[in-house]
Design brief:
single chain, alpha/beta, Rossmann fold, four-stranded antiparallel sheet, 24% strand, globular, binds adenosine-5'-triphosphate, binds magnesium ion
Length: 279
């Protein structure tokens, strides 16, 4: 969707996309349309190529064949300069959070602003505070990543991904490693971001509760292929043995709590200070 020269929440169109590394093909012949302004969830077993597909949508891994369009723009058919401008419109929450440990939170969020805008220091500080407020971390602007909990680091990664008001937000396993309550909070945050900003959101997850809470559209990958694409309703009644097994084997948050593996200790509110204090 293109408006007045700006690039709002475009659909992401993959046409016969084959991707891999070197001689190796990871995913073959993927054709789908991730709908504009919605949340698409990419599901699949470990190592099936979910992160690889996200890297392709970012333009970071070259295509073996096929095309990827973001709205009207052919991602792999542009000049380096155009690609740079495009990258500015994409926000990413990487699987490991990817915050720089040597920098406090505020500086981490400021990085994309320094790299891609000519804003002065005062403006950068203001935008950083605004973005941290969005994810409930404003009081922690001077904290280093090591002083934050896992959930706070994910939120901080989201604040950084949102720094440049992206048209497309890509999140790689945003709830992995988090307790069920923090995971549920993060799902709500993603839903709030979707409701507040014109963005197309793509989330890779293994989390069944997340899937059923946030997905408007689902893509399932297995053995190098796309096994399913469609709505949650269609996914639930799909009879493919892999999908039935995959959905049946993914633990729900409730079962994780009962099993005692989730470490639930009350609401992991981001407004509550972490144990570490700054001197
Ligand atoms: N930079 C790379 N160079 C070569 N091979 C890679 C690279 N990154 C990933 N791969 C390979 O591509 C395949 C898919 O990896 P990818 O990280 O996309 O999987 P994933 O579905 O995201 O897995 P997980 O759920 O464990 O994060 C794996 O076999 C992996 O070894
Ligand atoms: Mg991955």
């Amino acid at each position: 969707m293109q408006q007045k020269g700006r690039f709002f929440a475009p659909e992401i169109v993959l046409q016969n996309v084959t991707v891999g590394y070197g001689d190796r093909t990871v995913l073959e012949n993927i054709t789908t349309v991730l709908p504009a302004g919605k949340i698409s969830v990419i599901l699949g077993g470990s190592g099936c190529g979910k992160s690889t597909l996200l890297r392709n949508i970012l333009g970071l891994v070259s295509l073996k064949s096929g095309t990827i369009r973001l709205g009207d723009v052919d991602l792999y058919g542009m000049t380096d300069q155009e690609a740079m401008a495009m990258r500015r419109r994409l926000g990413v929450l990487f699987q490991d959070g990817a915050l720089l440990g040597s920098m406090p939170l505020g500086q981490n969020v400021a990085m994309p602003l320094r790299e891609h805008t000519a804003l002065d220091e005062g403006m950068i500080e203001e935008v950083v505070r605004m973005k941290l407020k969005l994810v409930g971390l404003e009081p922690f602007v001077h904290y280093f990543p090591r002083q934050l909990s896992g959930g706070m680091r994910k939120r901080a990664g989201l604040a950084r991904a949102m720094a440049l008001d992206p048209a497309i937000l890509l999140c790689d396993e945003p709830t992995s490693g988090l307790d069920p309550i923090t995971s549920a909070d993060l799902d709500q945050l993603i839903l709030e971001l979707k409701a507040t900003f014109p963005m197309t959101i793509v989330v890779v997850t293994h989390d069944l509760d997340s899937l059923f809470t946030i997905a408007d559209f689902v893509v399932v990958l297995d053995k190098g292929k796309m096994l399913f694409q469609g709505s949650l309703e269609a996914l639930k009644i799909n009879t493919d043995p892999f999908i039935v097994r995959f959905l049946g084997r993914m633990p729900t948050r409730e079962s994780r709590v009962i099993a005692g593996g989730a470490g639930v200790g009350g609401r992991a509110s981001l407004a509550s200070p972490p144990e570490t204090t700054l001197t």
